[in-house]
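TL;DR need structure tokens for one chain.
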Amino acid sequence: MFKILISAALVTAGLALAAGPVVAQETPCVERTAILKQLAGLYSEAPVAMGLANNGGVIELLNSHDRKTWTLIITMPDGMTCPIAAGESWESIPILVGSRT
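>> reply
TL;DR here they are.
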């Protein structure tokens, strides 16, 4: 049942992004270890980047080894993790020396 819930959340997040702005949509949040385990099992995704958001949450980008899928999650200070977005065909853009502004 948990797999269905996480899959539904990821699909919902993906559809919401494709459809346009999200209006008052609730995203199911779970403990970080649970969502990491779920994404690793279903999509072979693992964290590849992270940063601290202004609201105190930790944003993480997860990517599959073959780069077919990706997921963006946020973990809030209370420990709950929510999917933000998910998609396909992630591409990293190399930063060239001196090209940052």
